[in-house]
């Protein structure tokens, strides 16, 4: 038990310092130790963190392998919200790998679980993520349809960063549709919202759990 605590702590330190390859190695050791102690929920969390660290190294499909291992374990531990978070992360990994249909399939699985177990923020974020994949796959009208609900949800939640991301994405959509005046307005609104958040990185951010 003490060995697990120490190993997990080392993994977390490497992760916090962006040393993802070393973090992955120690998260794997943590997963194995948790399995020896018959702790499926902890085992699942360490498998998930291997996926996150691998994702940050740019190995998106390898990340999915770790996420799917964690999915099975969270299922055994009867933690549906954690499964929803994993489906969200799998959707993001497939999106980065430009496998858009598989990405949407996993996002939709997350959405179904969030509808039952998730917070209002979870529900808004997953719709926002799905819209992002629609944009990446040139399905602009589908993205616009989703953004009506997303906008209202972010407004209710007071999520200024989410609104800034959304309006930036609307700018992309309108520009690609040749609707330049609307694109300019959307980008301007995104810039104004971004000034309130003081977070220049947020426009390139997709939510991962």
Offer a few descriptive terms.
single chain; 209 residues; mainly alpha; elongated
Can you tell me about this structure?
This protein is mostly helical and 209 residues long. It contains 10 helices and no strands. Helix 4 (60-76) runs antiparallel to helix 5 (80-96) and helix 7 runs parallel beside helix 9 (160-176). The mean pLDDT is 93.
**Global Rg:** 19 Å
Quick check: average pLDDT?
93
Silhouette: elongated
Helix content: over 70%
- The chain-level structural class is mainly alpha
Helical segment count: 10
**Uncertain stretches of 5 or more adjacent residues:** none
The count of strands amounts to 0
Strand content: under 5%
Largest sheet: none
The helix-strand sequence is HHHHHHHHHH
Q: How many angstroms separate the termini?
A: 27 Å
